[in-house]
């Protein structure tokens, strides 16, 4: 395992340019955006500094940025504007599948994703609930698959163009993954009334006879095989192996999953500015820094950081007092976003890891 521990990722020119846009454009509007919706202008501002290129390999028009620099940028964004972060950090979701599919059609998407001419997103986690719950069903037809059903969660509806989707071929007990055109008339969406990151435009999508052509199919895998790895492989390893199936997981730089550290760090920084000598805040800050620097096997690292984020953002609200619950205060935005993290990608092993972090030993 290669642990990514640069001297200072925040000194990288790409990070500094990104941070300037976040401070000047996104931060002032963050609480309002959380209540309304992420505007397209936010994505355009990030596109202008090349952020969308970070997700795409250089040979397709992308920009090679050290993974620890990207992680620091994503954490900064989650701490400042969780709704925008929820959308844009998923921009790279179609990249690995496009390369995995390897067709001229999918490879042609990559320069457009790098340039920000197309925005990417994901809608595949719902398949893990089958057969207990049906989501999207894939039916083999000439030239591809017909997709019908409901994708429960997709962030960025109205902004995203390319969807990495998953569906179940029930006749063959296989999961089918591929890239879909969100502008197709066979796909409709309804923004969900979430109480956290509402501005992320997280929607329920309905697919009614959508044709997923063979050229856009990235993977067909037995359900049992996919479930055996679900939640046990980090996002970075999964994406690396989509691009190069021969990738050795031990050679993939290890960075903490994006989001929980950023939320927790921003909340604690604000709290410590008000109460710099509060020992409990200092202890929680030290616990956070230790956790982010101490990798654990998946999914336990994510679960530990997610749980600390809940405590840290709650401490941020307490430090603000009653004002922290006003709808224009970023403290409550972060606290609700931290709860949102608890329900993302809930593979059975992930849910169990979350439950385990909530327990506390009792004295005899």
UniProtKB/TrEMBL annotation:
<protein>
    <submittedName>
        <fullName>Acyl-CoA dehydrogenase</fullName>
    </submittedName>
</protein>
<dbReference type="Pfam" id="PF02771">
    <property type="entry name" value="Acyl-CoA_dh_N"/>
</dbReference>
<dbReference type="InterPro" id="IPR037069">
    <property type="entry name" value="AcylCoA_DH/ox_N_sf"/>
</dbReference>
<dbReference type="InterPro" id="IPR009100">
    <property type="entry name" value="AcylCoA_DH/oxidase_NM_dom_sf"/>
</dbReference>
<dbReference type="GO" id="GO:0016627">
    <property type="term" value="F:oxidoreductase activity, acting on the CH-CH group of donors"/>
</dbReference>
<dbReference type="GO" id="GO:0050660">
    <property type="term" value="F:flavin adenine dinucleotide binding"/>
</dbReference>
<dbReference type="InterPro" id="IPR013786">
    <property type="entry name" value="AcylCoA_DH/ox_N"/>
</dbReference>
<feature type="domain" description="Acyl-CoA dehydrogenase/oxidase N-terminal">
    <location>
        <begin position="17"/>
        <end position="117"/>
    </location>
</feature>
């Amino acid at each position: 395992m290669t642990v990514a521990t640069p001297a200072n990722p925040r000194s990288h020119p790409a990070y500094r340019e990104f941070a300037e846009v976040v401070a000047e454009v996104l931060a002032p509007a963050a609480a309002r955006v959380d209540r309304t919706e992420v505007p397209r202008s936010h994505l355009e501002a990030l596109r202008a500094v090349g952020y969308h290129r970070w997700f795409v390999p250089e040979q397709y028009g992308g920009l090679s940025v050290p993974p620890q620099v990207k992680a620091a940028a994503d954490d900064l964004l989650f701490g400042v504007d969780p709704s925008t972060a929820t959308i844009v950090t998923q921009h790279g979701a179609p990249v690995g599948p496009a390369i995995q599919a390897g067709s001229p059609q999918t490879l042609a998407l990559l320069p457009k994703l790098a340039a920000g001419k197309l925005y990417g997103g994901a809608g595949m986690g719902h398949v893990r609930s089958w057969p207990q719950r049906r989501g999207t069903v894939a039916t083999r037809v000439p030239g591809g698959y017909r997709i019908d059903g409901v994708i429960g969660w997709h962030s960025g509806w109205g902004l995203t163009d390319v969807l990495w989707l998953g569906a179940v071929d029930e006749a063959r007990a296989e999961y089918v993954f591929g890239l879909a055109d969100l502008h197709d008339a066979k796909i409709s969406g309804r923004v969900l009334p979430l109480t956290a990151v509402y501005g992320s435009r997280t929607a329920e999508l309905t697919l009614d006879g959508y044709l997923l052509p063979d050229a856009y199919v990235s993977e067909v895998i037995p359900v049992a095989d996919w479930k055996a790895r679900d939640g046990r492989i980090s996002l970075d390893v999964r994406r690396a192996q989509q691009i190069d199936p021969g990738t050795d997981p031990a050679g993939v730089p290890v960075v903490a999953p994006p989001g929980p550290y950023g939320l927790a760090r921003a909340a604690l920084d604000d709290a410590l500015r008000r109460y710099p000598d509060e020992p409990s805040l200092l202890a929680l800050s030290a616990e956070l820094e230790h956790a982010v620097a101490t990798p654990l096997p998946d999914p336990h690292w994510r679960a530990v950081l997610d749980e600390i984020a809940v405590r840290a953002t709650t401490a941020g609200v307490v430090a603000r007092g009653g004002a922290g619950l006003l709808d224009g205060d970023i403290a409550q935005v972060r606290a609700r976003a931290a709860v949102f993290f608890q329900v993302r990608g809930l593979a059975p092993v992930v849910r169990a890891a979350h439950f385990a972090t909530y327990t506390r030993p009792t004295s005899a």
